[in-house]
Amino acid sequence: MSEILKRSQVDPKMTWDLTTIFKNDEAWEKELDLITKDLEQITKYENTMLDSKENIKTVLKFEEELGNRVARIYTYAHLKNDEDTTNSKYQEYNSKAVALYTDFETKTVFVSLSLLELTEEQVKEYFADPELKIFEFFMEKLIKSKEHVLSKKEEEIIANMGHIMQTPSKTFSMLNNADIKFNDVVDSKGEVLPMNHSRYQVYMESNDRVLRENAYNSMYEAYKNLKNTFAATLEGVVLNHMVTAKLKKYTSSRNAALTHNYIDEKVYDALIHAVNDKLPLLHQYIELRKKLLKVDEIHMYDLHTNLVDNVDLKFTFEEAKEIILEAISVLGEEYVGIVKRAFDERWIDYAENEGKRSGAYSSGSYTTNPFILISWKGTIDNLFTLIHELGHSLHSYYTRNFQPAVYGYYTIFLAEVASITNEVLLNNYLMNKYKDNKEVKAYLLNNNLDSIRGTLFRQTQFAEFEYEMHKSLEEGKPLTADYLTKLYGEINEKYYGKSVTYDDNIPYEWSRIPHFYYNFYVYQYATGISAAYAFAHRILTMGEEAVELYKGYLKAGASKYPLDVLKEAGVDMSTNDPVYSCLAIFEENLKEFEKLI
User: Fold this and answer.
1) For 83-101, how does the pLDDT look when each residue is reduced to its tens digit (9 = 90+)?
2) Could you give the CA distance from residue 255 to residue 274 in angstroms, rounded to a whole number?
3) Which end of the chain lies in a sparser environment, N or C, as judged by fewer CB atoms within 10 Å?
4) What mean pLDDT is reported for the chain?
5) Tens digits of per-residue pLDDT, 34-56?
6) How far, in Å, CA of 536 to CA of 440, rounded?
């Protein structure tokens, strides 16, 4: 493999165009100064906001405009920082942007508190006004949250602490992306290869078992050496969740996270129950892996390589673009046209360079286009990741273009549905494209099995660990490295069964998962893939009618409760029926794969 480039050496065509946010750094700095001054102006309404309906209109408009400007500042700063996390200038920008967000939340905390002082009669009268009517649903949700709203002074304290409370996550991010170092790895031919986050995934998918094992050991050696530090950062973020939930009068951290997004905790429990009920399917797949790999022992580093080893699908970025455009054609010309813009207008940063943030994501704000970060290696995993992030970006684009700013976002429960629907459509396209090629079809079936394993089974495993971790701390048990390692190891063994030969490395996987810092996010990958398969089936079998309903989901944003958004689009996630349906697809594909192989 070629040497990893510095950011300055990367072809600009492979990077995103952030001049659409700010022309240059100087423009960003100028706007930062202006917003800092404007933030002081909104506080003058604190004691007069409820004096009249006109004052309420003024404050809500002012807050919305300021919020959009703050988000724009933050978007530019965090994207620049993620290009190269070792660049101290953009580390400083990012810190300033986070501090600005905290300042904004502190200075505007009076807005919601003031609105909660309105009587029921005032709410009905004021929000019947044409200029305020758009805020009716916002008020409905605000009133529902009233029991968890504290006094103004207490809310200000929590808002002011926001910057400090992000320290554990920030520390993890710096360690994980900028400071951690991995030993080079050696393949079966004796070639020494460089090691980083993005290359680790490539190595794990390799047919070279020596390379896989060495990369696996290199990865976990680095994390084990920092296990106590990572345990401290993880305990810090869980403490934040726990203390905030307690202060806000929620029954638990999980209750706070799910209630905030209007999701019943029964959805979480039903997911874990359904997946645990079908763990024998995963064990069956692992047994098949062991058989097909022809190994006496199957290890965790054997779970990512494709079992059809004579097929090696590779794609240039341009080839990936054409495949993606064809795969999503079932969603109509409008959808395809927006995706073309993402490629043509440089919404995507796909270069690989030193210090670049690991993983992939879609980001942006209400007043910007979406942006995608990915490090392109040309693998089929890259292809699926890219179409996944494009799903997020199109969801954001539709939401921001069809909803006012107050509803111009979507809850995290809805976030993964659009992205995984794209993945399912891509898989369907590729299966049709190669339907007469037995080997490639088997390869794709294997890839699909691994996708469901990695999203439905694995993310539910993470969700179970996350829940137990929070519950342990709430019961007074410190999250030491030894405790986290023991807990994770036990859950991992339950999920993967007795066929796997376990080592001393995999129990430390908890230390390298960024999503454990996101506050009960991971379960939504599992519910998301379940809803996504249901949507994809409807789109592929019902055509335009289903596409229009699906686009209604994309456009809805936060204008309705998340479960209602999905139900109106045709998928009911208030039960675990979609989860069982997705697990049934895994079983069906496993049977088909066994026949082909």
Assistant:
1) 999 999 999 999 999 999 9
2) 20
3) N
4) 95
5) 999 999 999 999 999 999 999 99
6) 22
The answer to whether residues 386 and 118 touch, using CB atoms and an 8 Å cutoff, is no
Number of C-alpha atoms within 13 angstroms, CB side, residue 330?
A: 24
Distance in angstroms (rounded) separating the CA atoms of residues 566 and 534:
11
Please give the Cα distance from 208 to 196 (Å, whole number). 18
Measured between alpha carbons, how far is 2 from 194 in angstroms, rounded to an integer? 9
| Residue of 63, 155, 389, 416 marked catalytic | 389
DSSP, residue by residue, 328-385: GGGG-HHHHHHHHHHHHTT-EE---BTTPPSS-EEE--TTS--EEE------HHHHHH
- Residue 541 reports pLDDT greater than 70: yes
CA distance readout (Å), 471 to 210, 255, 476, 477: 39, 11, 9, 9
Q: State the DSSP H helix or E strand holding residue 321, giving kind and residue range, or none if neither.
A: helix 317-327
Alpha carbon distance 171, 156 (integer Å): 24
The answer to whether the CB of 247 falls within 8 A of the CB of 510 is no
Q: Is 389 a catalytic residue?
A: yes
- Secondary structure of residue 192 in the 3-state scheme: strand
- In angstroms, the first-to-last Cα distance of the chain is 31
- The position carrying tokens 């993620």 is 82
Rounded CA-CA distance 186/443 in Å is 26
Q: Cα 157 from chain centroid?
A: 28
**Residue whose entry in the numeric block shows the structure tokens 């809310």:** 155
Its pTM stands at 0.86
Q: Collapsing DSSP states into helix, strand and coil, what is residue 500?
A: strand
Query: CB 59: neighbour CB atoms within 10 A?
Result: 21
The pairing of strands 185-186 and 192-193 is antiparallel
Torsion of CA 212, 213, 215, 219, to 10 degrees: 130
Nearest to 516 by CA among 476, 461, 563: 461
Tokens 């003031």 found at: 114
Q: Collapse the DSSP code of 185 into the 3-class scheme (helix H, G, I; strand E, B; otherwise coil) and give the result.
A: strand
CA distance 536 to 389: 17
